Amino acid sequence: MPAVTTDNLLELPRVPVPDPQASTPRRVRAVTSAPQGFEGEGFPVYRAFAGVSKQALDPFIHMDQMGEVDYAAGEPKGTPWHPHRGFETVTYLIDGTFVHQDSHGGGGVITDGDTQWMTAGSGLLHIETPPESLVMSGGLFHGIQLWVNLPAANKWNPPHYQSIEGPQATLLTTPDGGALIRVIAGEVGEYRGPGSTFTPITMIHATLSPGAQVTLPWNPRFNALAYVLSGRGTVGTDQRPLDAHQLAVFGDGDSLTLAATERPDNRTPNLDVLLLGGQPIREPVFTYGPFVMNTKEEVVQAFEDYQKGKLGVIPANPVPHLGA
């Protein structure tokens, strides 16, 4: 799991440790396991938020862990051209390469540790597909796609695209150097990630060595979620077990704790976990397919606008598409 790393963790800034006498640890409210499914042209995913209430997830809507899968030559798959409206898609690629293009002029190549942040807003078409070289060679593919809701006032904003290259992430460690903390968006103490978001959120990819523990300050106005990408550990001060493809939902407070077990699983020596928090929007949400709106009527309108070509057209020079 390369993502972004460093040769010497002890050279990194130390994450601030909350004062145990002045902070309120977040307790774990629930742990859920992600079922497997398929997305796009058939690439395997884990549905990370399955079985969790909208209220607990707000402002997040949906998240897939894509892979981890080691493709043979000719097997890599992507998505066909499809529409979105009313939210932001965040694609964080840990292993492999994806090419993105949208009808609003955004796009590029995302690879190990890069993040593609696309604000669909009022609507667009886009495609995500492996490059021809990866299709020919095969190889490891692993990433995350997260959907972040937009407030009603911002659902009609013009589409926007930002590319966050892996080395742009803010890298931190713990006082003992036992963990690598990649801040992609939001703040951890005085440190801030490069991601710019309409909806205030925090997004962190942390890698903990066996036996390491992390306690992070957390915005008390945000919710808090921890999803294990690989490995085995515990969450909360009561050390609730958390394995690969499981999600922990935290309660209120201003700090959260996680730790890696001394005895990792057979696949990886470390605990890799995605930490998410966001300011709840607390508005009605109606989702269907690729649209996230406030009412059923708005989703119906989105489908009608898509059918009329109002969400954009496929560019004259589109990314080569598998099977096209």
From TrEMBL:
Its cofactor is: Fe cation
Keywords for this protein: Iron, Metal-binding
Show the CDD domains listed in the entry. Answer: cupin_pirin_C, cupin_pirin_N
- Which branch of life, at top level? Bacteria
In terms of Pfam families, this protein maps to: Pirin (PF02678), Pirin_C (PF05726)
Give the SUPFAM superfamilies listed for this entry: RmlC-like cupins (SSF51182)
Provide the Pirin N-terminal domain boundaries. Answer: 45-148
Asked whether the UniProt record includes Iron among its keywords, one would answer yes
The UniProt annotation places Fe cation binding at H82, H84, H126, E128
* Keyword Cytoplasm set for record: no
* Cofactor binding, per record: Binds 1 Fe cation per subunit.
InterPro entries hit by this protein: Pirin (IPR012093), Pirin_C_dom (IPR008778), Pirin_N_dom (IPR003829), RmlC-like_jellyroll (IPR014710), RmlC_Cupin_sf (IPR011051)
GO terms, molecular function: metal ion binding
Task: Please report the stretch or stretches of sequence annotated as the Pirin C-terminal domain.
Answer: 204-311
| Entry similarity comment | Belongs to the pirin family.
What protein name applies here? Pirin family protein
Naturally occurring in which organism (per UniProt): Actinospica durhamensis
